[in-house]
Design a protein that fits this description.
single chain; 110 residues; mainly alpha; Retrotransposon gag domain-containing protein; Retrotrans_gag_dom
Length: 110
């Protein structure tokens, strides 16, 4: 994946992925930018890895050299590794399990 960055390339205006947000949302935002600017698969890989903060960057750096052969593979590895950060949809039944503790104000209560 040695595609060159376009001469007029600018870093996308995308918040860095910090492991506390939904990886699918981050990836979707990135893919929209990549589509808009017509990134090749190689450019997608090179640019996407630069949207990570410290821990995500450490994960990327520990991948064996040249082990990622396509953006699709990179995408799958990323989503699999950060799956625990994925936002889960709340269902109405989860509301019934919420309890306010004695002495806990409404402001403190989730």
């Amino acid at each position: 994946m040695a595609d060159e960055l376009p001469l007029n390339w600018k870093e996308p205006n995308l918040p860095k992925y910090d492991e506390t947000t939904d990886p699918q949302e981050h990836l979707s935002c990135f893919e929209n930018i990549a589509l808009l600017y017509r990134y090749t698969a190689g450019v997608k890989c090179r640019v996407f890895m630069n949207t990570f903060t410290r821990l995500a960057q450490q994960w990327f750096n520990q991948l064996p050299s040249e082990s990622v052969r396509s953006f699709g593979e990179f995408r799958s590895l990323f989503l699999h590794h950060f799956a625990s950060s994925k936002r889960c949809r709340k269902i109405i039944l989860s509301l019934f399990s919420l309890q306010q503790r004695e002495g806990e104000s409404l402001k403190e209560w989730p």
